[in-house]
Amino acid sequence: MAVEERQGARNSAARGARFTAVMTAIVGRLPFGLAGLISPRLAGFLVISAVTFTVDLALLTAVHGGLGWPLPASITVAYTAASALGFLANRVLNFRSHGAVGPQAVWYAVVVAINYFGCILGVTEALAALGTDYRLARIAAAAVEAAYMYTALRWVVFRDTRHPATAPAPPGNEVPGGQRRAGPQSRER
Question: Distance (Å, rounded) from C-alpha 34 to C-alpha 87?
Fold first, then answer.
């Protein structure tokens, strides 16, 4: 059993390292000086958020548009499922947290509840009540959600993460002496 747990931890660490390497490579290729402004961790959050938002919107459309559930219930089901996926993906791949899952899950639940009632449900419902299509209203609410959630995940939920979110430099970035130059220098943001 202990051997299987160690192997699982190694696989998880390898996935996280690969994800960080890909995000570092993407950030290093950003135009207009954005590489100096966007950390690989922020890029990872944005990629994961794009995936979970797609899941959220697809579920919302299926439950509200397809099954005819009331909009608040549909938003709740879709958001809860997407949030669970976001927690797991950010914990394992992006923030690569090694903190205790229980306290992190509690903090995450608090952060998500504040986000849900303060932004998602309120903004989506308000815009829909003003005549905006519920899908467009949900997209508008996502902009505020992204800023809040990244900040809360980075500095509250996964605050145990102390290592930089950079990976080794890609091939071709050697400096004299055969060493590799690091990829874009990432400040923790």
Answer: 26
For residues 45 and 94, is the Cβ–Cβ distance under 8 A?
yes
- Provide the pLDDT for residue 143: 83
DSSP 3-state of 180: strand
Number of other residues whose CB lies within 10 A of the CB of residue 124: 25
Whether residue 147 contacts residue 84, with contact meaning beta carbons closer than 8 Å, is answered with: no
Long-range contacts of residues 106-113, Cβ cutoff 8 Å, at least 24 apart: 107/156, 107/157, 108/83, 108/153, 108/157, 111/149, 111/152, 111/153, 111/156, 111/157, 112/83
Please tell me what DSSP assigns to residue 135: H
Query: Residue 27 is encoded by which pair of tokens?
Result: 């950030």
Dump pLDDT digits (tens) for 156-183: 999 876 554 444 444 444 444 444 444 4
Q: Exposure of 105 by Cβ count < 10 A (0-12 exposed, 13-18 middle, 19+ buried)?
A: middle
3-state helix, strand, coil in the chain (%, to 5): 70, 0, 30
pTM: 0.71
Residues contacting 163, CB < 8 A, separation 6+: 96
Concatenate the DSSP letters of all residues of 24-77 into one string. HHHHHT-STTGGGT--HHHHHHHHHHHHHHHHHHHHHIIIIIIT---HHHHHHH
